[in-house]
Structure formats: structure tokens, C-alpha cells
Design goal:
The active site is at residue 185. This is 3-methyl-2-oxobutanoate hydroxymethyltransferase. The protein is of the alpha/beta class and 285 residues long. 41% of the residues lie in helices and 13% in strands. The protein has an eight-stranded parallel β-barrel with strand order 1-2-3-4-5-6-7-8, surrounded by six helices. Strand 3 (81-85), helix 5 and strand 4 form a beta-alpha-beta unit. Helix 4 (63-76) packs parallel to helix 5 (95-109). The protein is elongated and about 85 Å long. The protein binds 3-methyl-2-oxobutanoic acid. Residues 24, 43, 45-47, 85, 140, 183, 185, 206, 215, 217 line the site of 3-methyl-2-oxobutanoic acid.
Amino acid sequence: MPARVTLQRLAEMKARREPIVMVTAYDYPTGRTAEQAEVDMVLVGDSGAQVVLGHDSTVAVTVDEMLVLAGAVRRAVHTAFVVADLPFGSTEVSDEQAIATAVRFVKEAGADAVKLEGGGEARLSRIRAIADAGIPVVAHVGLTPQTAVALGGLRAQGRTADSAARIVREALAVQDAGASVVVIEAVPADVAAVVLPHLRIPVIGIGAGPADGQVLVVHDLLGITEGKTAAFVKRYGAIGPDMVAGVAAYAREVRSGVFPGTEHVYSATEVAVEAARAALEGREA
Ligand code: KIV
């Protein structure tokens, strides 16, 4: 089995300019898919609120729901570095609340690190607190879906002078606060490129152009997500329609009596069949 990916290994990959591959996973099968594809990092993203739980934003997902998803992924992933997203509402109240939530993801789900959105003052305090508690933190700046309403919707950030300057300041600040890795989401590549050379920690991009690594939502890249996806998504499969076609074919065969066929049934001895019949004796038909 390949050696487990550690923060040290991620830092070495950055130093060697070896691209870091990160993908989301939300359950045992997607975790196993990521592991078998030999990715470096797996993110149990709160995007699971949308792609597996059917909410229309990431805001609704709870800590207990995320713990179930993260635990299932951890049971499948033995090599890649597993990061669990801290959901909205689980860190906002205080540093103490943030530490307590992060500890649950490490102890109950076996996460290697937790991810926290935002780079404002309160967020920096949470990053410091969690990192000081000994839990690695992956920061997330640029488009932060948990607070998308305050950002004017799910749209690219860093396109105005103020917004571009804010992203650079926040990326540097989360590093100074003790983050071990930073995700930059939906930011013009030219703006991300300004701050990249000033970040010692690995930078994972999603819709931010070239970086030390990339992350995509697994349902988007495999073509399970229905409808329009973000402009930065590239599809590497189309298994959503295959899944529907498979279940529809099963439904047709059940309805027409083709399934189950003789090859899908268990055989029994004559004695067992006789005993089954005898068990009916004396009962009303
Ligand atoms: O929740 C998630 O999937 C994420 C990625 C989009 C970075 O935060």
C-alpha cells in the first residue's frame, strides 16, 4: 500500500512543483473511487449538502450529517489526506465552538484536517484557535459558498479592485494565522497568480487557474450533477445518464418478468421444498 499522504508530503510536492490532486467524496463508494484513482487529497465538502442531500445551498447541512459523510469516506480512504468541511453555524459563535467542532471531526470521523471558509478577522481567530489545538486547518478564500449571499451570490470574486485586494490580503492572512493549506475558489487566474508566489503553504485552486493543486466536486467531474455547473468545471465522465439508464432497464425487466432469471435464484433440495409444503398442511388455502 502506498504511504499515507501527510502535510509534510504535500509541502514537498509544492516544493517539487508536483501538482496536488484533490477531489470531493461524500460516502464509502466515492471515497473508494478517489482512493483507487490515487488522488492526494480528499475533501468531504459541505457541497454534499447539495450533491448528495438535495439542498439548494451548503448552508443547511449539520455537523451530525457531515460527520456521517466524513466517517464513511474515512473508512474508504487509507492513503489520501482527508479534509472535512466545517459546516455553516458550527464555528461562527466562538473560537471554543470552532475547536469543539473540529475535534469531533478528528475524533469521530478520523479526518486529517478541517476546512474553514473565509479570511476575515473572526475567521482568522478560528483558524488560529483550531491550529493551536493541534488540528491542521485548510483555509478557503475567494468565493465562499457558505456566505455567498453576503458576497452577492455564487459568482466569481476578485474582479474589482477592492475584491482582488481583499483576496490577496485574506490569502496571506490565513497563512499567517496558521492554515496549512489554502483553497482559492472562483477568482481570476491573474489575481490568484499575484499572491501565489507569496504563499509558502500549498494552494489548491478551483476556478482560480494554475496553482499547486486543483480540486473539483466529484459529482460535477463525473457528470452526475444535473443541469448547469460552474464555468470552471470540466466533465471527465457522464455517468449520471448511465445510472438512470441502468435503473430504468431494471424496472423494465421487473415489470416484464424478465428479471429475476433462472441464473439469479437459489436452488433447494427436494427435502427442503417438501418441508416447506408440509408447513402449510392443516392451514386454510
Ligand atoms: O464543499 C466543497 O466541495 C468545497 C470545494 C468546492 C472547494 O468547498
